[in-house]
Amino acid sequence: MSGILFHKYGGEDLDSYYPIRPECQADVPKVRFKARAGKTLSARRWHAAFSEDGHLDIAKVLRRIQRGGIHPSIKGLVWEFLLGCYDPNSTFEERNQIRQQRRQQYAAWKTECQNIVPIIGSGKFITAAIVTDDGQSLQDSNRDSLDQGWHVDGAISDKKVLQWMLGLHQIGLDVVRTDRSLVFYESETNQAKLWDVLAIYSWVDNDIGYVQGMNDICSPMIVLLENEADAFWCFEHTMRRLRENFRTNTGMIGVQSQLSTLSQIIRTIDPKLHQHLEDLDGGEYLFAFRMLMVLFRREFSFVDALYLWEIGFS
Amino acid sequence: MAAYRADEDYDYLYKVVLIGDSGVGKSNLLSRFTRNEFSLESKSTIGVEFATRSIRVEDKIVKAQIWDTAGQERYRAITSAYYRGAVGALLVYDVTRHVTFENVERWLKELRGHTDSNIVIMLVGNKADLRHLCAVSTEDAKAFAERENTFFMETSALESMNVENAFTEVLTQIYHVVSRKALDIGGDPAALPKGQTINVGGKDDVSAVKKVGCCNA
Fold this sequence. Notes:
The structure holds 2 protein chains of 2 kinds. In chain A, 48% of the residues lie in helices and 1% in strands. The longest helix of chain A is centred in the first third of the chain and has 25 residues, at 92-116. Chain A is an all-alpha fold. By secondary structure, chain B is an alpha/beta fold. Chain B has a single domain (12-185), classed as P-loop containing nucleotide triphosphate hydrolases (Rossmann fold). A 6-stranded mixed β-sheet of chain B has the order 2-3-1-4-5-6, with helices on both faces. Chain A binds chain B through residues 24, 27, 127-129, 142, 170, 173-174, 177-178, 180-181, 209, 211-213, 215-216, 248-253, 255-256, 281, 284, 286-287, 289-290, 293-294, 298, and chain B through 22-23, 39, 41-50, 70-72, 74-75, 77-81, 85, 97, 99, 135. Chain B: It is found in: Endomembrane system. Chain B: This is Ras-related protein RABA1f.
């Protein structure tokens, strides 16, 4: 990146890594995170933590992350380890092989999806339903330009295929509302990238499918990792920890078991607060639903949420 | 616009839910009513979010506790918590997307299945500023509202059109329903009497709704 001034003792403008659209400046939370010399994991420290063949001294790296987070210039690379995509004890060579295999696997899934819905991977995406609940293809002459370039022949009988297709427009409706204050998502290509990754994830993890909120979890991966397949695998590894929160059964969403844990914790450590919440009929702690579902992404600025996450992951 | 008042200072507290398909503008209706804000960059609602505002109805201060819900079908899993204790509902569709109007019936069924029969319901056709994209005629929506015995208004959160009216109307109607019965229950201003049949108005109320639709011939 050009035009970034490095100050050795902090004060560096981190916004230049994830620039905010000027007209949105007033709407986003103030950034509190600052890269601190000697505390934040820098690019130099990161590269120095690898042995010659690529073994990573993860303990040293983690200590630093816990003290001051990760410098934005290397966040994507470090997150791949934090999320468990790669074993720190592996070599450069081994990781390269895994990366290639994973990219191929992603490409194969993407092809499967493209064969059903050709707009996947086209750089465009849909925001209106393409099938009815009973599998009839919807051909709507009023579709806007976003929605052209797909066609579905006949009725969809395969249940897995139908379930997946029914969720695609919801992903689109959410993508157009995800982190739109970031300059990054002014690009329709980047929006489509987020849509593709979520669409393919919901194809692969059809047990959970797509649930609103996954867009907030996935978006940082798209921003941090340039390669779409690498971003997918980071998201997939994040979801290994979070997917139960998104599971919906009759009368229950997974995250509610965390809300009840939170409720028990508050009842134990601050019974007065708990009683107050009960009196307000907040006993189910639904006010914390969003906080836990999207890991405080809505409470903090983009940069600060990433900082919180990487401390949590480390 | 009615004065914004301190939170603690109210006579009645009513829970109102905002429901309808994803992306119809529920959150912007809420932010327009409670904070007089609108955002083109608004984010999807996760689970349930809340806001309150107090308004004056006749000589009382009525505080609305409004529950804004996620539109995705999957979130129906926490339906019972949404609807518990709700005395009013704004059922929102997007006048530019006909499918969101088609789904109103499904929403209404769910709403009625989970709430007291006295609940005050208003059908709301939002995004009425997008006149050239209008896909649901005012007549169709009005006919539906009459058939289903709900109130009806077309709104624009963007242009701040009818938003105040829609919420105020719902709160006023709730007030009338509650105060008709409140004489019996005395002390507790927040309580809606349970297990009693309260008539929340019929066709006359609906036809009194303003004619400011985007699709009027």
